[in-house]
Structures are given as structure tokens and as C-alpha cells.
Amino acid sequence: MHARLSSLLCVVAVALTTVTAQPASAAAFSPPSQVIPGIPAVNPVTQPWIWPLPQNWERGSNTLKVSKHIRFEGRDARHPIVSKAIKRYQGLMFKKEDYPMIPYNWSTTDYKPSRSSLNTVVIDTKTADDHLDMDTDESYTLTVPVSGKAVLQAETVYGILHGLETLSQLVQYNPERRSYYIPNVPWKISDFPKYKHRGILLDTSRHYYTIQDIEKFIDTLSWNKLNVFHWHMIDSTSFPYVSKKYPQLSAKGAYSPRHVYTAKNIKHIVQYAKERGVRVIPEMEAPGHSTSWGYGIPEIASCLNTQPYFGYTVQPPAGQLNIAHPKTKEVVYDLIDEWAELFPDSFFHAAGDEVVMQCWSNDTYITDHLQKNNQTLMQLFEEFVLGMEDHVRQKDKTVMVWQEMLLEYHFSLPKDTVIQVWVGSEGVKEVTEKGYRTIVSAQDFWYLDLGFGRPRSNPYPEVQGAGFNHWNRVYSYDMRANLTKEEADLILGAEATMWGELADPNNIEDRLWPRAAAFAERLWSGYENPEGEALISSDAILRLLPWRERLVLRGVRAGPLNQGFCTRNPLDCFQPPNPDK
Amino acid sequence: MHARLSSLLCVVAVALTTVTAQPASAAAFSPPSQVIPGIPAVNPVTQPWIWPLPQNWERGSNTLKVSKHIRFEGRDARHPIVSKAIKRYQGLMFKKEDYPMIPYNWSTTDYKPSRSSLNTVVIDTKTADDHLDMDTDESYTLTVPVSGKAVLQAETVYGILHGLETLSQLVQYNPERRSYYIPNVPWKISDFPKYKHRGILLDTSRHYYTIQDIEKFIDTLSWNKLNVFHWHMIDSTSFPYVSKKYPQLSAKGAYSPRHVYTAKNIKHIVQYAKERGVRVIPEMEAPGHSTSWGYGIPEIASCLNTQPYFGYTVQPPAGQLNIAHPKTKEVVYDLIDEWAELFPDSFFHAAGDEVVMQCWSNDTYITDHLQKNNQTLMQLFEEFVLGMEDHVRQKDKTVMVWQEMLLEYHFSLPKDTVIQVWVGSEGVKEVTEKGYRTIVSAQDFWYLDLGFGRPRSNPYPEVQGAGFNHWNRVYSYDMRANLTKEEADLILGAEATMWGELADPNNIEDRLWPRAAAFAERLWSGYENPEGEALISSDAILRLLPWRERLVLRGVRAGPLNQGFCTRNPLDCFQPPNPDK
């Protein structure tokens, strides 16, 4: 046919474009004519199509059919969290695309699948305790034999959830045979995450997300084996939280009665997330970025929507908590009490970012207070912040704060404080060399909301690289760069961010996925496999392309990584030598 | 309440966040307490919420209710195109959002709407002829009196379509009264487009769009008063067109039997577009970017998927038409014949972009031909291209080509050729000073697909500014910069582009809208109003924010332009002085 036919790979690739001579009317999928049944297709994939890549995996060369009536056996399969997950995965495993863009037959090593089918998966956990926290064991092992039962074992139900996800990704749809199968049996997978804290920040204040939007967001986190939803619920722009004690905060500070989160909503979300192995960590944005509090309780706000806002805030509207007013502490502590109950997680984010001093130094209530108490503004600020954090600690919570608390204001933070780095990747070194634990959200790599121009009201600091972070840049970032072993051990994990200036339910999925998947793999799989070989993007792209297709099949509006041709024929696009590599 | 209450504007703004003390349960929308019924709210909008802005408009200060049973009168209302449009707009006019983000009461000048309602719109066109082409008159006048019938007059049905769109945008939903109204009656609008050719290029080869996707794309074009769908249907990556004479082209070159466009599909799309005032101009991508032709008819291709592809193509896969082979001309001319019939538009795009000489100079068929005929490669290339264009001209079509034909290869193009500028905005001067008409798609302002990193297989030239074009940059570009009056008169219009490397149905709407709306206003409204005053982005943003909200209400997944707070309280974000302005 043409010059490239000498390569068997190309046969596979071209085959998919030559399925029939009657394209428009053909309903059935004819086998690609160049593929001779019974003769294995070339399989150029050196890693399995599992995202994120498991730590340890072995595979064979047989093909196993999968019954659509697959059963999950064992007492542990009846654990409420597991049984619900099984129901979900019985749906997710059997999605199909009759004309897939992926070279699905890459993963077919044997065109004569076994006569028997996979009918049963045995579920086995060590404990029925379903407490979920940072130290929860998420490991699992999965074996899929050539015949007989598959076995999924884990310490906890959360390991089972990850194992079910992996199992679902092993199942491929074969459009020629119109059936589901697992290629490359037998499988032996033994897997665990490299980092404990793997999250995404979602900002529901700048734009509102419905409960359904948040559910879908959590679903997609869990499919990527991410385990933290950092809920940036409130900010200057709106106060959607319906407080029991202070209903006026949302009544006057939310965008509308529709744009709110009630206690019932929050409990639902927390439970929904838990059932998917996702912790929900609330961020109480304070004392900066707090305009919206002031509509409901004016006396606790300084520089409330001062106009022009320049110099009073990094973005409109201006407004910070009045840190001198006794009512402010009262409200903040009461809200911490409410959230401590609503959010069972042991982490609590006490914020502390992007404070603008001029807001306070132009507030006579505050300057009078300073004069009367012979205090500097920074002393008052530190007193307020440490008081707030202490109140959180009294609830038996670990305090997370943004990096400014330590690196810019140099407050005396207890050593158990977890510092979230965001301004730039160099902050990781600065925080860990001071001996603090860190969660990394380096703007120059893992802010996924940036790169869409500078909104006129949103003067981000012009950090080098603060533009759009391409998936390859996201994937390339090594948090451990320039760190000693001791410093690197202080990294608990990381969070990618989806701030809300230019994101809302209309575009969030394309903004997040598949880039956040690239991030997720770094957190789960790490930087090297157990043999010490680096995980590199040239291998990753061959798995990320089909993973994006699977996300789309599952209903996620993830944007494409490249031309459809490259999804179909990855080695024709991503073969070395590649100057962009 | 707080410092900003002195401003009446702020009352309106804050009012929207204070609708009720029982936010979660409240179903009804209580009137903002600070707004005293009967006293007009401050109306800071100096331009009406119509996008794109009409050329001439006058408005009054009364409020008119609109009946949901509004009737359209007159013989011309029964024209098939008009009557279908009326049905659509009877739906589009009455969308509602009970808790809108826009300061809807900005546009309410009188809290006592008229007792009478707008029940009737008289439709009146000069001609029933519905031929649609570049010179079709699209002007209209619309009057909405304080009471009685509204009148929509136009030369053609296409003017009526634009007038219906404008009318639909005048209709606002009032969530307090749960009713629809037109603010600021009486209205007198007399409107027409500044540029005749106002298009968007959609690339359905790199990624496939279903017929429904394309319909929704066309709907959104028409709502923005854009009138050209430049259909970049085929490219190297796939050949979705099902040719009557050469069915093997799509059978082997499409991604699959599902990823095709049949003659029936195309006729449907052309008719669908026509009914919305949108011309469909097909682009026959040739002789570059033509790999996909070679799977069905191998002898007409050079360097078919040569690997490694570097040096043979600007992006994978390599493959150009074999311009020496007699069969190539035959196939191209036959396809032109088929398309000339399927696409009635008088414009036909003959491409000619991004040819890589090495593909041909390494093809012995071509080098042998050159030797035998004592010809240079450039002579052969020019002969092929001019032959192809001449064949298009024989079909009574105006030939459009990409700028390389003129500016890079310096071919002897007839003066009636329309040159599409893309490499950079400086090309507009270069083309028009040679006396050619142009359609402007300057990459540095109006490519809407760029800015998402450099895909590894897609080495775009690193044009300065070829990143993400923010809406304000899109809006700021003046095509006439540095041109003489004569040169400027050669600008027929422009096209924004949505190339398909990183766009598909999952993300196209956020990528296009509302940025393409900013583009659309420049094309329709121009750069100055009839009084010669510049149309500037600080005014535009106040209209673009609610227009984006309306697009979302109509089902378009357009991303937000800024924080929700700024949609709600635009003057708190966009008041001068603004350093970003």
C-alpha cells in the first residue's frame, strides 16, 4: 500500500482507518484486514494502560474475556463502601466506543481469547475500619489469573477502591468482537501511593459549583487515585457557607439563595467523597480575601469594598477581617467550631495568604487599637493568626496554612504546622530547610487555572512560568529538586489548584483534565519505578492518551492532548527523536 | 451598612446579595430591600446590552412587559426561513435564571412596567429572495414603541434574522416579578455590519465533530451575528469527506466509519447554516497537509507518513499530494466538482499553506518528472496550484487561498483571488499593498486555538504573541493599522480560527466563547460608532459579561470572563483607574 507498510505497527495503525469500504452505512465493525487472527499484533507499549502507573506489575501474554455479570465475592465485598463501589465499577468497566480513537488492539496480545471468562473477583481486606485520614493505608494487590478467580486484597477498603479502579482500567472493549476482555493475563499488581496527600483545590467562592458539579469533580479525583479535595469554599467574592450561628453571612454574602452550601450539603459531600476514598479539607480563608463576610457582619470587616480597590487588595473586591475587633475572633472561632464538626478530617486549612497591609493601616478602628495597646500591626496580625490556628489545634486538627505565614511574615508557627507552598517552586526548599512539613502547589508547575491572560481585575504577580502549564511541564516537575533527603521527607504530598477567577462549571473539566491526571501520576507513582528507573513523559504520553479517552467515555469533558491522529497512532507522533521531548 | 452605601450603584449591587434571610429554603425571589419600587435604579450602562453593538440605537426610559405568546405578523413572517427563525426565537427570548449573576436591574429604568404588553411584532422585508452570499444585505431596523406593535424591517430575510436576535437580547427576565420585559422603551435601532465576511474556521479533520456539534457551533455563530463557517474539513490527519467518485478516500482515510461527512450530511449542514444566515465555505486543503488522501489512493501522495517526520511536514503525519502525478489533478478536480455542487457558496478555499519542499524533493516520482520536463519544483508547484484554482474559477467561484501563495511563493495569482492572512498581522499590509482583497486571521490576535503549550507533535512557529489571545487582545486588534484608505477597503472581513490540534467537542465552546464574541463585535460593529467615537473594551466588558451569561443560559459552555463578583458588580471591578485597562 505505501512505504510504511513494512512496519507491523503501522499495519495496526492504518488498519483502524480501513475497516470497511462502505463507511457511512456500516454498523458493524469489520476486523482490520491486515490483522491475521491468531497472530499477535505487535505490542509496542512497554507499560500497561493503567493511570497512574502501579508501583509493581507483571503481566503475561494471554487474553481473558470478562463477563458483564462479573461477581464480587467475600464478606468484605459487602462492606457498605465496597459494595457501593462495586456497583459503580460494574458500570464503569463496561463502557464502550464502537469506533475508538485509541489503538485498542495494541493491548491485545492474543487474538484467541480464553474460552472461560473472568466471572469472579474475590475481595479481601484486613480491616473493616473505614476511618479515612492521611495515614490510611491505600495499598492493594490485584491478581488476575489466566482462568479462575481474580483476587483483590488490601489493608483497608480504600485500597480496595484503588484496586477496583485499576481492575476497571484493565478491562478493554474489543469493537471487532463486541466484547470485553483483559489483555496480558496473568496480572500481578502490587500497588501503593508514593505520597500520602494528593489533592486538588477547588474554589467555589469566585464561581459557584452545584452539588452535582462537586460530585463529578470528586468522581474524577478518585478515578485518578487522588485523595484530597481542598475546599476553598469562601473568599472575598462570595460567602456560600450557610452558618448555623451566623446565617446572615451567606444570606448577605452569597451570590444568591441558590449559590450556597448548607450543613446538609456539606455532610453529603463529605460522605460522598469518603465513599470514594477522598478526604475533604476545608479552608477557612482569613483574615485576607474576606470581603464577603462583611456584608453580613459589617463590624468584622476592614476596607470593605473600598474603591478604587488598588493598593487595598490583590483583586477586587477589597476587604479583610478586622483583626482588632473582638467580634471577629468570636465569629471566626465559632465558624471553626462549626466546620470542625462538619468536616471530620484531621487537617484544617487556616489560610493566611495575600494580606494587604494598607487595608488595615487605613482603618481607624485598627490604628486606634494599635495605639491604645502599644502594638505594631504585624504583632496584631500574628496574634490574630496564631489565635485562630490555636483554636483549630484545640479541635485536634493539624493546621495547614499558606506559605506567607512562614516565609513572608515569619510568624512563630508551631513545628507541626503544614505549610502549603504556592508562590513558586523555590518555596519547597525554603519551607523544608526550616524543618516544616509541606504540601506543594507550586504555581509555576501545578496551578492549572493560569495561562488565560491576565484578567483585568486579577493582577497575579508576574511569576516566571506562571502561564499555562502544559501537561508535560506538569509531569516534569520534581518536587525534590535541590532538597536533601531529610528535606524531601518533609513533603507530605501536593495539590494542584483550580482557582476560580476564570473557571466555573462550564470549563473546569477541560482546564483540569488530563493535566491533573499527569499531576496525579507523579503523586501516586512517584518519579522512579521500584527498579530505580525514571518515569518519563515519552512513556507516559502513550498511557495518557488512552486514559484521556477513557475519561471522555466516562463523561468527563477532558480536552485532547494532541491531534486525533496521534491518539490513533501514537508512535507516528511520539517516536524519538523528538525535538519537543 | 458599610462605607460604600453612599453610592446608589452599590445599593443595586449589594442588593443582589441580600435577597433573603432564609437563603437555603427560599424559593421565591424577594425584591432587593434597598431598591424602592417606583424609583428608577441608577443605570450606569452607557450602551445597551446588545452584542454585537448595533450601529445606531436610541432608547427611552419606559419598561414594557413582553407576552410569552408574542405573535409575529405580516406576510414575510411566513417566509420559510423567517417562520423557522421565529419559532427558535420564541424559545430563546424566554430563557430565565431565577438567581442571575448579572445585575439585571441595571437595565430597569422604571419599576412600574407598562400595563400593556408587547404582543405583536410586524415583520417586513423588501424581497423574498433568500439567496445568501457575501453581498447579501444584512441590515435591519427595529422599533419597539411604548405600546402597540414592534416593527422589524429589512431588505432580506437575513436582516430579519439579525433583527430577531437583537430583539431577543432586548428581552430581559425579571426574577423579582417573574416576568419578561424590555427595558428602555421606546427603542429605535438601525443596524448593519461593518464587514461583509465574518467567520470562524472549524477544523473537523484533526478531531471529528458530529453533525449536532456543528449545528450548535452554527447556532452560536448566528447569535453573535457571524455569517461564515469556514469548513476546514480535511487535512493530513483524517479524510472524513465521503466522495461519490472516490469512496476509498474516506473508507481508508477517515478515522472510522463513524467519523465521516456524507453528501447528505453536508447538504443538511449547508441548509441548516443558511437558515441561520451563515454561509459555509469549504476548504480543500491541498497540496500540503494531505496525508489522509494517500491511504485511499496511494499514488497521489508523496512522503506518505515518512518517519521520522521532521523536515517533511510541520506536524505529523508527513504527506503531501504528488503534484507530478496525472492522477492527482484528476482526483482534485473531481473533488472540486463534487464540492462545487454540495457547497453553493460563491467562495471556495483552495488552501495552499504550509507546504514542505523536502517532501517532494525526496520523491523520485517527482524528481524524475522535473528532469524529464526540464522544470523546477517551484514551477511544478505553481502549475499545480494555478491549475487547481483555475478549475475552481470555472465553477464561477471566488478563490480564497492562504497567504503563502502570494507572500512566500510569489505565485502569479489573478487579482480576484482573496488572500487569507494568518502568519501574523503584518501580512494584512503586505497583501493589500499588492492590491489583493484579504480576509484577516492574524494568528497573533485571532487564532483562538493557541496558548495551550506547544504540543510535542505540533511545532508552531514561535510567532511573538502566538500564545493565548485574551478577549481584550482579540478586541483590541485593529485590522486597519498602518493601512491606507485604499488598502483598508480591500479587507472583506475576517475569520477567527479553531484549529484542531488541541480542540474537540469536549472543549471547543470554552475555547471559542466569549472570545469569538469579542471578535464578532469588531466585525459587525467596527471600530467606531457613527459619531466617530471609538468602541473601547472598558465599555465592551460591561456588555460582554451579560452576553456570556446569556450564552450560558442558551446552553453554550462559554468560560467566565472574570470572577463571578465582577459579573455581578462590574463597576466594582472595571472602574477606572484600572492599570490593566
UniProtKB/TrEMBL annotation, chains A, B:
Pfam families: Glyco_hydro_20, Glycohydro_20b2
Leader sequence segment: 1-21
EC number: 3.2.1.52
Key words, A-Z: Glycoprotein, Glycosidase, Hydrolase, Signal
Chain ranges of the Glycoside hydrolase family 20 catalytic domain: 195-526
Location of the Beta-hexosaminidase eukaryotic type N-terminal domain: 50-170
GO molecular function: beta-N-acetylhexosaminidase activity
Cellular component aspect of the GO annotation: membrane
Residues of the active site: 354 (proton donor)
Metal-binding among keywords: no
Catalytic activity: Hydrolysis of terminal non-reducing N-acetyl-D-hexosamine residues in N-acetyl-beta-D-hexosaminides
Xref: Gene3D superfamilies: Chitobiase/beta-hexosaminidase domain 2-like, Glycosidases
GO terms (BP aspect): carbohydrate metabolic process; glycosaminoglycan metabolic process
Superkingdom to which the source organism belongs: Eukaryota
Family, per entry: Belongs to the glycosyl hydrolase 20 family.
Protein name, as recorded: Beta-hexosaminidase
UniProt source species: Mortierella polycephala
Organism classification: Eukaryota, Fungi, Fungi incertae sedis, Mucoromycota, Mortierellomycotina
